[in-house]
Amino acid sequence: MYREAVGRLLHRVAETDAYHRAGIVAIDTTEDDPFTGDRTGHEAEIIGTKDGEYAYQWTTIHLVGNAVPIILDARPVRKGDSRVEIVRDLLDSAQEYVLIDNVLMDREFDSQQILEEIDRRGLRYVVPKRMQTSEKAQAKRLLKWKQDRYVSDRNLLLNDDERHKTTLVYRRRDNSERTDYRQYSVFMTNGDPRLLREYAYRWEIESGYKSVKRFMAATTSKNFVLRFFYFAFACLLYSIWRAVDLLVQVEVTDEYERSPVVTANTVLTLLKQTGIG
Prior knowledge:
Elements: H1 2-13, E1 22-31, E2 47-48, E3 54-55, E4 57-64, E5 71-77, H2 83-94, E6 99-105, H3 112-120, E7 124-128, H4 133-145, E8 149-157, E9 163-172, E10 184-189, H5 204-215, H6 224-253, H7 264-274
Parallel strand pairs: 1-6, 6-7
Antiparallel strand pairs: 1-4, 2-3, 4-5, 7-10, 8-9, 9-10
Helix pairs in contact: 1-6, 2-3, 5-6
């Protein structure tokens, strides 16, 4: 149902010249409010977070960059779910509606199998790499040499007979408070290293999550289906808001600026009047 709704929404905004059908997507995972009650019977759904808490978790794929920031798809995360299956599912649905050039992801998607899946589709990716022994050693050398950037090729092991070729880009962070090798970040890409300039777009997904939570209904229910429905419906309302904003801007000025001129509260009020919200 969500995918069908997004398809209709994209069809509507595609009637304007301001809509970019090809572009950049970001994939990330967000957490519901931390759960502090009894998880008995729900351990596979209310799973541990990186902060040591427990919460329902959802993964989404967003249009970012110059495109209207619509959430193309959302799916739940349960204990035992494979991240490569999650990414495959999200890309399958997203590619039904838009042409994707680049995929931006967080460090949690640092997986050889995920990178191979994206590369196999003919897409380019940018993802931070967890620093292991060899990366730490290289960062220490770069610090000693006072070098801000370094690029090298790497073959990642997929199985006994196959490897995934990627490029590692070391980049020294500006104004870092660190004084050791942790001044450096390491990124992986299968495209031109200059793609790293686009990685800043990934942060749009974080601001998107903050806005989505404004549209979410409050509940104390442990029902997994209800929880996911509330999140997915909020994602849809957010996407409707951003699409309406694009349509209004184009109607008034014939141009589209990503900073919205229509407020979320205005759209919520209109939706309530139609009986949707």
